[in-house]
Amino acid sequence: xxxxxxxxxxxxxxxxxxxxxxxxxxxxxxxxxxxxxxxxxxxxxxxxxxxxxxxxxxxxxxxxxxxxxxxxxxxxxxxxxxxxxxxxxxxxxxxxxxxxxxxxxxxxxxxxxxxxxxxxxxxxxxxxxxxxxxxxxxxxxxxxxxxx
Length: 148
Known about the structure:
With 148 residues, this protein is an all-beta fold.
């Protein structure tokens, strides 16, 4: 599910909220070994949101968040990667006509350590056997875009 909402708008200024929520509920079906276990590698709940302010001059600013629930690491459902919530912010400028723009972005503001992805295993017997790819730590990114 996704929702893009204008919360406020006046004289070319705009405040909007973008949201996305994929829900994953995948299970084995009558498997001889795993029964109805949840398939590993996918969080059941995943949510992203971005609050954005656009000024009529082309300047904009955003605040964003991402949440992922715990997810199984193996088909035996013996070990889970932790849930996580991360936050970010961006400020930028889009020139009238879209010919160029620039931005500065701050990611993972709280420097949260989390598993960005999981490579599912067969049966880890409840142990953490390093099947998770770590997410990026705090970072500062900048960019410029030119259109010809």
